[in-house]
Input
Amino acid sequence: MKTGFKRATVPLALLTLTTLTAAGCGGDSGAESKKVTVWMYPVIMDPKANAAYWDGIEKGFEAKEKGVDLSIEQLPWENRDQKLATAFGSGKGPDVVLLGPDQIPQYQANGAIQPVDRAIGEARDAFRPNALEAMSQDGKVYAAPIYHTVTSTLYNKKLLEKAGITEPPSTWDAIRAAAPKLKQAGASTLDYSASNEASLNMSFYPLLWQAGGKVFDDGGRKAAFNGPEGVEALTFLVDLYKSGAVPKSAMNNANLFTDQALGKQQVAMGYTNTPADAVLAEKAWGKGNVIVGPALTGPGKQVCFGMPGGLGINARSKNVAGAEKFIAYMVQPAQIESMGKAGGFFSPRTDVTVPNDSTYAKEYQEALNHTYPGEPNPAARQLMALISPEIQAALTGKKSPKAALDAAAAEADELLARQR
Amino acid sequence: MRKAATDEVAPDEGGGLPGASGPPPGAKDTGPGGRDGRGRPVTGAAGTRSRIMRRREALAGLAFVAPMLLLFIVFRFGPTLGAAFLSVTDYRLSGEWTFIGAGNYTRLLGDDLFWESLGVTAVYTVLYVPMTVALALGTAVLLHRTLWMRGFFRGLFFLPYVTSIVLAAVIWKWIYEVQDGLLNASLGVLGIGPVDFLGSESLVLPSIAAASAWKGFGYSMLILLAGLQSIPREVTEAATIDGASGWQRFRWVTLPLLRPVLFFVLVIEAILGFQVFDAMYVMTAGGPVRASYSLVYFLYDSGFKFFDFGYASAVGLVLFLVVLVFSLIQRRLIGRDAD
Output
């Protein structure tokens, strides 16, 4: 047995090695400069519609730009950054890739992407300033916006009426005032998501911004969310939670609508709901019971979360000219319109309105003017994993809002100091 | 007799767990006067021939296990070595890395979060293992006694085990819900509650452990049932004749004879307890306030939220050591018993 194993070891090891090397060498060797590869993600939720849309874009572009071979590859959202970073790192990335504002700082800092200002050209002034700013670093634009998402308030009319509330609460004060009335009517007031897997962009940050606060200081190297505004925002939330105005189920909610208190008509309103949520609400509550309101107003300002999605260029692209041509094609009004229509998005350009036959198009279009995409920082995503548990500690009463935010800020500063 | 019990256990386990299966069938010494692989008597004069035969047999055996062995090397052994290597580096997403020696490990020892998650995991295991084994033993004894529709009940009890853990966790989340959850609605009828099972720091671990026990007891139940069935009837009969009551028979005859199987089950469940992640990921995301933040959750966050792959690998290796210690204890005790 032993000898047999020894003898087999070498060939086995060699076989393993060859398998590994083969896997390592496999990869595209698309060096022809005429070719432009694009990494796209399921931005249109229906897979068939998504495939059909990008197929059409490929044909449309190639018909216009003769001699450029466009190849749009579809990737899943899962492990998006891991795949992209590995590809960039090994010099094998696509020429063009879809990027969100929170991805740009880290890739720009690593020199993995290059500016797209030339590709945007004169369309520059047509973009929403917020959208363009979200995609910029050091005064240069790193991704050309092709769509914009939006969230806003969503109300259950039946529950409001039951509590005798005629005007949907659109400010913090109005929410505080509505809470006892709704409690009388057997409902909670405001839904929230405190799960560690919930993005803070859709839970705590909007409250922080509404209070006038910021997540990072101006240099982006220190936490700022534990300032007086942050404490005010968390106190607002904790008070509501303790009185039952924010439902207990919020503790394990991860920005979901269906099967959560809002979807099940146990709570009267949400403040970070997407147009998709409104469609679900129509199905769950009945059409007449859904109200989409303006972005929530706090003591500091009126603001909601929403961000652009855009196209960036690989710093090591072998066909920058082709990549720029493709981006220039995608930011034209016709494409912005078709993209928005297919994906249910809004326009990142002020001069283009995506035709939208949804009942709430007007309300969301209005909320779009108050969207904020979050503060760009390479550690933005990681910071959330540190803040979430502390917010939970404040909600359960284990810590005061101030103590909880200070504890999170101490950890955050450590994380930011560790950034390379 | 005890050996028979362990042998019966072996084919069921299927997970390739070290030490549980006893000596491999091919390892039996076929010396002079024994029988070779084809059942022919081997004479002393054919010593050399038998050695050649044995070598051939070994090669044939190797050929049979080669596909599995190759898979094991490529997908288990290789990555494990890779993780060990990663754990002494500062590995960046871009593929660049620097050797930092024991840096990750010293950081780990000073990281409160690591100790917190290790504590959570230990408490969870202490809750989960007794719950699971008690449930498994109870159902196994019931099944052993029942003859009526035994197959049906065995299948029924085993069903949760083959259910996806994510699905089970989602259903248990509904059961535990504060408002109108099944459990709270039932407690409400009795005038108790509502109890925030998953939102309270003290209740969250027992609640998750109970859900996991429900999901996982079927496997141990089958093993214990096999153990029970291998206990010879004469022994219990003798005890009955001696005037032992039902409980006395169970406590002083059945349980001691079941000991090795029970111990195997305890260790396997303890190892599973230490690896807990998915139930927490789905039910609480580690909350509230990290009260259900397990060691594997800490590993997951380090790797996939903080992109700190070296650090995550160090956590993985610590977990590996913990599980290894359990396996070694199990191997020692079971091995000794079988001799």
Observations:
- The mean pLDDT of chain A is 87.
- Residues 130 and 372 of chain A are 7 Å apart (CA to CA).
- The radius of gyration of chain A is 24 Å.
- Chain A touches chain B through 46 residues (CB under 8 Å).
